[in-house]
Amino acid sequence: MPDLGAIDDYLHAIATEEKLPDFAIGICTLRIEEPEPKLRVLLRRAADGAHLSDDESFLLFRGIHILGAARDSKACQPLLHLLRRPFRDVNDLLGDAVTESMAKIVAGVFDGDADALFALMIDSSIDGFVREALFGAATFLAGNAASIATGCGCAR
C-alpha cells in the first residue's frame, strides 16, 4: 500500500476545512485504528464539558460520524454522556446532527449496554430531540435483537 501520509494531516483537514474533506474522512474511516484514540479523547473532553476550540468542535462534529461509521463501540458511553449534557451544549456542538444523523451514529457505536441507552431515552430531563434520536437508534437495534440482548452483531 502506498504511503498516504500521517493521519494527523487528515484530522487537521477534517477540523479546519470548510468544505467537507471527503478524501480525509475516507482515509480516517479506512485507517480507523489511527484516529480512533484521538477522536475518543476529544469526545470524552466534550462529554465532560471542556471548552473546545472552533477547530476541535468541527472535528468533534465530523469525528462522531467517523466513529459511528467505523462502529467504534468504545465511543458509545462517552457519546451517551455527551448527550446527557444540557441541550444548549449539545446543540452548540452537534447542531443538526442530533436530528439528522444521531440515531445512526448511536446505533453504529452501540456497545450492548441497553440499560444505559434506555435510561437516557426515558430521562425526561433530556431534550426531546435527543431522546427521539435515541429511540430511533433503539428501534434500529431492535431489528437485530441479538445486538441489543448481547451486544453482538452491531458493534465490534
Question: What would you note in describing this structure?
Answer:
This protein has 156 residues and is an all-alpha fold. The protein has one domain. It is built from 11 helices and no strands. The chain has helices at 7-16, 22-30, 36-47, 54-69, 76-83, 87-94, 97-100, 102-109, 114-122, 128-142, 145-150. This is DUF1186 domain-containing protein. It comes from Bradyrhizobium archetypum.
Please give a handful of descriptors for the protein shown.
156 residues, mainly alpha, 67% helix, globular
**Number of separate structural domains:** 1
Helical amount among residues, as a percent range? 55-70%
SS field, number of helical segments: 11
Number of strands: 0
Cα-to-Cα separation, first versus last residue:
25 Å
Q: Largest beta sheet, briefly?
A: none
Structural class: mainly alpha
Give the strand content.
Answer: under 5%
Radius of gyration over C-alpha positions, nearest whole angstrom: 15 Å
The dominant shape is: globular
Indicate the low-confidence ranges by residue numbers: none
Mean pLDDT: 92
